[in-house]
Design goal:
This protein has helices at 13-37, 49-69, 76-94, 106-119, 121-126, 129-152, 178-197, 209-216, 218-237. It is 66% helix and 0% strand. The protein is mainly α. The chain has nine helices and no strands.
């Protein structure tokens, strides 16, 4: 959700553009989700398996890009803490709308992923790119396939929902636990290292300036769209 580079002197346009497209698509998805959830819009296919897969693909691309951007951050630990503070704000704002609360959404995931990357930066930096990419991708795929089983377990330990074990009674309109999504974040990190070493991540002028602008300010766009949607939905409910 942060800029592709902390420095304003250099940009990798493709990272900003993909992230900009993703954040706009995510906002449209959230609006449709809220309208369907409130019964304002009737879309029977919205919660189908293939629709959930499309949602995960778009969210996954965003997570991968965020992992790549860790390579260009001066302080991933600081970025992670800032993102977690933003996640707390979103959690509080969405709690105002019944049934729409976000308890561990994509901002929570990214905040924790950046923080863990900052804490483990020495270890991750010494891990060979191909080996790290393979391990992270394999762990993500295994965790993704096991997600239905993990969510079916009746584990109600304090905070286990953050790991991917929501237990009975857990509810969140946006849910991206550390298992498996942290491993996709790290797959982006290692894949980005490989692409950068091969000279495939280059600075330059964006081909799509508007998408690039949205990508550079995706965190603020995400934060602002949540309270705007919350107010809009409250008005609809009344």
């Amino acid at each position: 959700m942060t800029a592709a580079f902390d420095s304003q002197r250099l940009r990798v346009p493709i990272l900003d553009e993909v992230r900009g497209f993703d954040i706009l698509a995510m906002i449209l998805y959230h609006l449709a989700y809220d309208l369907v959830k409130l019964g304002v819009w009737d879309l029977p296919f919205f919660f189908s398996g293939w629709m959930n897969l499309i949602r995960d693909i778009f969210a996954g691309a965003f997570i991968v890009i965020s992992g790549i951007c860790c390579l260009y951050s001066r302080n991933n630990l600081k970025r992670g803490v800032s993102c977690l503070l933003a996640a707390v704000f979103v959690e509080g704002a969405t709690a105002l709308v019944p049934g729409m609360s976000i308890r561990f959404g994509i901002l929570h995931l990214l905040g924790w992923s950046m923080t863990l990357t900052g804490l483990l930066e020495d270890f991750l930096g010494k891990t060979p790119e191909k080996r790290g990419l393979f391990a992270a991708s394999a762990c993500f795929l295994a965790g993704y396939l096991l997600t239905p089983w993990m969510r079916a377990l009746s584990l109600n330990g304090d905070g286990l929902y953050r790991l991917g074990f929501p237990g009975e009674g857990f509810s969140s309109s946006d849910y991206f636990p550390l298992i498996p999504w942290l491993f996709l974040f790290w797959a982006g990190y290692f894949g980005g290292r490989l692409l950068r070493r091969q000279g495939l991540l280059r600075s330059g002028k964006p081909a799509f300036p508007f998408l690039s602008l949205c990508g550079r300010h995706s965190l603020w766009i995400y934060l602002l769209h949540q309270p705007v949607l919350a107010v809009f939905l409250l008005l609809i409910q009344k």
